[in-house]
Design brief:
Layout (H helix, E strand, L loop, with lengths): L10 H6 L7 E7 L5 H14 L4 E4 L4 H17 L6 H6 L4 H18 L3 E4 L9 H19 L4 E4 L2 H8 L4 H14 L3 E6 L16 E7 L8 E10 L2 E13 L4 E4 L5 E4 L1
Parallel strand pairs: 1-5, 1-6, 2-3, 2-4, 4-5
Antiparallel strand pairs: 6-7, 7-8, 8-9, 8-10
Helix pairs in contact: 3-5
Amino acid sequence: MPPELAPSGLADLDDRLGGGFGFGLHLVRGMPGVGKTAFLESVAWEAISNKRPVLFYTLRDGELGAWERLVRTLGFILGGPTIPLDALHAHALAPDELDTLSGLDQSLQASVLPYLSLVETIPAYTDTLSGFIEDVRLRAREVGERHGKIPLLLVDDLEHVLLVTRARPLRLMLSRLDDALAVDSMPGLLSAATPDSSLRGLERLPVQAVLTLTAGPASAIDALERVNLELQTKASTDCIETLPLLLDRQSGLFAQSPMSVEREPA
């Protein structure tokens, strides 16, 4: 039986991925602030909506940062009152906002966190790449046994993993992670903020796909930002497809843009 794919929730992207993210490592790269964390979290929300467990290493912002964004996004999904992130950061909530926050947190605990395992640090004993991979496998096995499904792995971010595990060279690290995920039939996404040119060109990277996020043209709607996603897959290394997306900075979720899809030679 083939492994279950993990859809992104973006129809054009899923179509080009053959239905979603398959097992193995997928690299999500882009400059700081373009929306890599939001992209990972959008994929997490899609998985949770399908009752698929998610193992999320929130190495960039930690559990608190992830919780704040989850609460914000859940308010938009439920269509009720929302909590602005700046008010959460400043601990400056009015009494009615505190009541809203309490209700959203209860909903989060009941319907989201049972499927979402947040890990904010790589344990001290996993100071090698082998240790990190084993930590992922142990946690994934526990989550899988609890839900009866292989989880989706999300890791934010590559630079932190490189620092903690002292894994070098980059190609070897990516290859070992990809191999480990393939053996366990687990799909995984890893964000990378580095603009290093060595991360461009799938022929040099042992991953299933490279997804590069870049800022798009200005949007007429203030809350929306246009973001282009350049996709190159192992199955199609001879071309790069550009998928126009919209990032709603208020909800923190990605959506498809009605703009056309472009293809260009790699």
